Amino acid sequence: MPEQTAPFIDGLYGKLVEGGIGYFFPSAKFDLLEPDAGAGEHRNMQTSGETSLILEWLGCRYSLTRDEAFSDAELKLLTGIGAVLDSRYRMLVDATRVEQQFDLFRGLAEDRYVSAYIDATPYVKKVWKGPDRVEDAIEVLRTSSLSTSENRRISTGVLLFGKEPDPCHEMPVTPSGALRYSPALNSIRSFYRLCDGLQTLALVDENGFLVEIVDVVQWALPYSDTKLPVPSPAQYQTHSQGTLCGGHVCMILTPNGEMKIFANGAEVFRFWDGRWRLTDAERKYTLWTEAIGNFELAERLFSVALNLAEDRRGGLLVVLDNPSTARKLVSRTDLLSPLPDRGEHPVAGTKDQLHYLLHQKRVLDVPSAVLETVARIDGGIVLDRASNLLAFGAILRHPDLAELHPENIEGGRTTAAVSASRFGNVLKISEDGMISFFQNGKCIWDI
What we know:
This protein is an alpha+beta fold. The chain is 32% helix and 22% strand.
């Protein structure tokens, strides 16, 4: 009987690996190559080029290709997908492991892939009897996102105590009668009032038990002077700082109904618009800073974009390569240079009358809160690489883009971003929480 079912199982799992990769890498091309008797029985992965991977799975070889190189974080995610499916496959052909690890079949597959990225221990150990803390926490947050408390959406969060040395925090002691941090907690209504995810978090020990409620700011205080690898939204800066040491993992459900996972001082995953997304924030931030060439300016604009996105406010930040091209993109009346003392009078009742407030200002000299407020004005902020503010609330010109961007462009802000990126680098912030980086008429990344 096993000989008859093995081909079916192999075929099924070949489709599952294709589906898992397609979920997180929709733009990549996944192809089945010729069968290879020498291919590994289970998973294997090797790089055949910066933009191409060869995957070996159950005696078959697959290629995964796309236009841009795969980052270290993406390779780690691919390894996690393989670890989950490999673990499940081995369970099907080993009755003993089914009895010991059947819980690994519980929950959504994509949740398991995220879990294996954060902590692959439950999937790589031959015998694992402990809980999958990350997946349990995801289920708690996912169920919470479907509930309300006093007609308001629930926000909550958890801090998984790390498995690495942390000189600033002692290993928590498991209290008598401690409950596991698992979906069963969702049945306790008062549980939602214990930790809001913004100021307080549930602390979970190494064995998956809820042992304490911690203050986020107090927990992150020892790392408050440590620079983060990537800027974080102001609202979640302490959440990032709290994971800088010790291998701690912070997972929250925001008031916007979005799940976020922080590790190693940065946001690594977000569940947004109905699906998990690997943020790959460090790589994307590096691309942005290299494009701007002014680290301080790049950091300031990136932080402003993150805060706007978190507040679900749209915006457009344009850094021109050459300030003299501003007149090609912005109308004369929107530029900050024309002022009454130069013989040019602003039109009564228009934004022009307020230009003097920001005339000859450098973005780096303007407080972040002021810059964020100005960025909320309809239109875009235009500046040069020296951070000189050239225009704000500007309606950007966008002539026919058929040659530059032949496919249809949806939304005026996207059209303006594509047009402006011909003259420099652009961050577009959407009201749904997405940030996009445009350069030379193309979208370089979304986050």
